[in-house]
Amino acid sequence: MQLITGHFEADGAIIYLPIGFVPDYFFMCDLSYTTATIFYHWWRQMESDAFATALEGVSVSQGVTADLATTAGISAYDTGTQAPTILDYNSTNADAATARSATANGTFLRPSATGTTVDGLVADRSMVFECVTAGDSSAEPSWPVGIGDQVTDGTNVYELVVEPTFRKGYAGVAIAAALMTDGDEHFYNAWQADQAIDQGDVASWDGGIYGS
User: Fold this and answer.
1) CA distance 201 to 62
2) Helix (H, G, I), strand (E, B) or coil at 9
3) What is the dihedral of CA 163, 165, 168, 171, to 10 degrees?
4) Domain extents for the chain?
């Protein structure tokens, strides 16, 4: 069994939480300073056993429990062994950009060889930007230099990310943007069990005894 506990501050966008494993149970506390504190619970078997109304977990806010909508909750995330392709910025790549989603990374781009930063300097070619909103390209923007900073190219939106070598094969959970309020503090526990058991429909258990 493994237990990981951690913390992060939300930025209002989807987050792929690198835990080191896909948890069998994930608990998260959304501590807001302006609204009610919300607790989230997600079991991996909700997703694997296809519970129609609660694939992505449940929330508890001031005693009110609700199922999280599909693509708007918590889901397993495991990139396997394939690292993302990083393209050099050009009009073709920008026009064909794919946005980040609940289950996949977006298009990764480096500035072009002639790209510049918001400071008017030649852009560092080691900077990597991920498309978070896909649209139409206009022209290469002046690239920001702070991790997490975003820039608009036409209607595309790109975000500066850490060199994404850490994304190669990392596992955890994806937390939808619908649950992420910018500035909220989040505390979580993630468990990987020694064994996960699906007992199925117990209607066939004579007298409530398994195997009877």
Assistant:
1) 32
2) strand
3) -60
4) 2-79+169-208, 86-164
